[in-house]
């Protein structure tokens, strides 16, 4: 009976850990997005949801991720209402999952 309980608990932990890992934004993508934020306007309200150690695939506005790879595959930045200005930051090149 105790061996069966240990098996159930172990299985639950493995499933829980794998789901939480899958839900997280790729750390390379998160770093690149934070670099973009820093260069374009770290205080702009446009970036209010872009906070370190949060899931960029789930909680960051204007960012989308591939459901399978969890890599950023689209990013929307622009428009006069954003209050952003400047050149496209080089860090955008680190978002290798972007799709046209």
UniProtKB/TrEMBL annotation:
Q: Which part of the chain is the Leucine-rich repeat-containing N-terminal plant-type domain?
A: 29-66
Q: Where in the cell is it found?
A: Cell envelope
Q: Residues of the signal sequence?
A: 1-23
Tell me yes or no: is Repeat among this UniProt entry's keywords.
Answer: yes
Q: Which Pfam families match?
A: LRRNT_2
Q: Which organism does this sequence originate in?
A: Opuntia streptacantha
Q: What is the protein's name according to its record?
A: Leucine-rich repeat-containing N-terminal plant-type domain-containing protein
Any idea which UniProt keywords this protein has?
Leucine-rich repeat, Repeat, Signal
Highest taxon above the source species: Eukaryota
Name the SUPFAM superfamilies on file. L domain-like
């Amino acid at each position: 009976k105790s061996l069966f309980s240990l098996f159930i608990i172990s299985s639950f932990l493995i499933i829980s850990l794998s789901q939480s890992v899958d839900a997280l934004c790729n750390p390379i993508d998160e770093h690149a997005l934070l670099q973009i934020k820093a260069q374009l306007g770290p205080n702009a309200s446009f970036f209010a949801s872009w906070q370190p150690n949060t899931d960029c695939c789930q909680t960051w506005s204007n960012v989308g991720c591939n459901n399978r790879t969890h890599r950023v595959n689209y990013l929307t930045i622009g428009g006069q209402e954003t209050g952003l200005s400047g050149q496209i930051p080089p860090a955008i090149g680190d978002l290798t999952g972007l799709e046209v």
